[in-house]
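quick one, 181 residues, struct below
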Amino acid sequence: MKSAPRLRRGLNPTALLWLLGVWLLLWGSISPLAIGSGLLIAIVLLVATPQPPVEIGLRLRPLRMLRLLVYLTVDLVAASVRVTVQILRPGPPESAIFEVALRVRGGLMMTMVAIAVSAVPGSTVLDVRPERGSLEIHVLDASAPDAEQAIDREVRRLERLIVAAFGPKAERERVREGGGR
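---
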């Protein structure tokens, strides 16, 4: 007969410190009472609600992260100029909504791509469709004849850079092979 899990098994030091930090932020001060009560509550929560270990598969590649950051910074500046020009033009911009297929399938990778797309002025992710592996994106300026292909290329480039910087091997291979379509 198996014994109940030991108390130590549920006491992940990282989770304990994270919960304590949140508790101290809620208190708004660091005092012996706040630290003591925060530790007590964190221990009770971790023991009473044990969670299985989660492997998110995130791999940090600093040089690829730097490349992504530089690309996003340049894109942010260029997009800001494009949006400013759109605003200064007379009449409303010709906007559109496109569905763009993603090659990544992991929830974290899809979320990171969606955040990166929405962070750049002129485009906003309206919906993430994990079951279809796609993003629904509103584009402020869709006046160019190839607007749909342009947003598709932009999302693919962001997807490639994000997966290169953070993605697990399976996602990198899927993006390299062009999967997801």
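The helical segments are 13-27, 32-48, 62-88, 107-119, 147-166, 169-177.
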